[in-house]
Amino acid sequence: MDHFNYRDGALHAEDVPLSRIAEAVGTPAYVYSQSTLEAHYRAFAEAFAGQKATVCYAVKANSNQAVIRLLARMGAGADVLSEGELRRALGAGVPAAKIVFSGVGKSRHEIALALEAGVGQINIESEPELALISDVASAMGKRAAVALRVNPDVDAHTHEKITTGRKENKFGIDIDRAPAIYDRAGKMPGIEVVGVAVHIGSQLTDLTPFRDAFALVAELVGRLRAAGHDIRRLDLGGGLGVPYQDEVPPSPAEYAAVVKDVAGPLGVEVVLEPGRLITANAGILLTRVLFVKEGDSKTFVVVDAGMNDLIRPTLYDAWHRIVPVAERPRGTPERPVDVVGPVCETGDIFARDRALPVLNSGELLAVRSAGAYGAVMASTYNSRPLLPEVLVKGASFAVIRPRQTIEELMGLDVMPDWLA
Ligand SMILES: *Cc1c(COP(=O)(O)O)cnc(C)c1O
């Protein structure tokens, strides 16, 4: 469900024609729909209404503080992975107690900052990290509430670059080794064990891997409790997929039922960390056609957005729907084209052999489903400034991140005095 629809022949974000946004902020630009963000968050949170559940939005999917604040006001906590994300979440108004600090490589400084802020939970991904957290916490006279992120060695059947729950992935602690580490953790002065965490990957379109992983985690909880650990929380991560093309991912209700099957009998509180599910289909990348380049065997549509603005197609072979902002009548003939960006890389391709109507230079296109892992992964490669983000609410819109200027971009460089 989203609010990007054609009206009177023109694609709108809610009640705003996208052409108006292009006039106001230029292209390329990310455009998000507030109603869509709200609908996705609500659908997910309501699916867990009957359970003791906290939804901690995975900030890495889209970390604009306006997006975080919107979700925080709806009751969301946050899952963060760095000092930057932690400070964004706090700055956007997420209560520290509803923040989970995850990630495989936290620094001493970041751990101290998280403890100082009073985050609700720190997820531990290795034994050396456990020792470091205990050290830092005891030096501060605190005990860190922790969950061990276990790696259940379950195949999430998703793209290899977003699968995280296999033994060969860097994430988590082998589930077989977890009981011994919990025993050690239980004796550490700076540690308070509160739960078990798991996150097996992203863009899962089937419930089976979730069910398999959660069952292994439930078994572990039984063992840990028998060994005297007070396991009261299960952090089940994120990963529920969204439709980009013709996938039919499980509904939040179906996913919640699987969670209930596991968590219900254990009487634990659950933490859920959806990211993509909330933001992916609430955003588009708005871009303009620069040229249509006819080759011998191919037609290239060159647009003003590049892989530095949206890296998913080249990084994950991701498929994004691409539609003209000016609607074509039903039955308009289409032909296969490659939609490519201006960046000097062969991988700077948004779509290959994509059936599209004849496109004109200067016209606007919307790259759909770009609200997650889009703007957050943008870079300035080829000295292309970071693109703006716009939030639409009904008939209003606001720039929630202005386009970086070339001056700002160049101003980051500093000449050493011997070259001045
Ligand atoms: C990336 C990540 C998430 C969010 O994943 P989505 O697929 O966007 O829902 C949640 N938890 C952890 C620990 C993550 O690394």
Explain what you see:
The chain has two domains: 4-32 and 280-410, Lyase, Ornithine Decarboxylase, Chain A, domain 1 (Beta Barrel), CATH 2.40.37.10; 103-272, TIM Barrel (Alpha-Beta Barrel), CATH 3.20.20. It is α/β, with parallel strands linked by helices. It has twelve helices and 21 strands. The protein has helices at 18-25, 34-47, 65-73, 83-92, 108-117, 127-139, 178-186, 208-226, 252-266, 276-279, 312-316, 406-410, and strands at 4-7, 10-13, 16-17, 29-33, 53-58, 77-80, 99-101, 121-124, 144-151, 173-174, 191-197, 233-235, 269-272, 283-294, 299-303, 322-324, 334-340, 349-357, 364-367, 389-393, 396-401. The model has no long low-confidence stretch (mean pLDDT 97). The chain is globular. Strands 4, 14, 15, 16, 17, 18, 19, 20 and 21 form a nine-stranded mixed sheet that branches. The longest helix is centred in the middle third of the chain and has 19 residues, at 208-226. The structure holds pyridoxal-5'-phosphate (PLP). Residues 58, 60-61, 79, 102, 199, 202, 237-239, 273-277 line the site of pyridoxal-5'-phosphate.
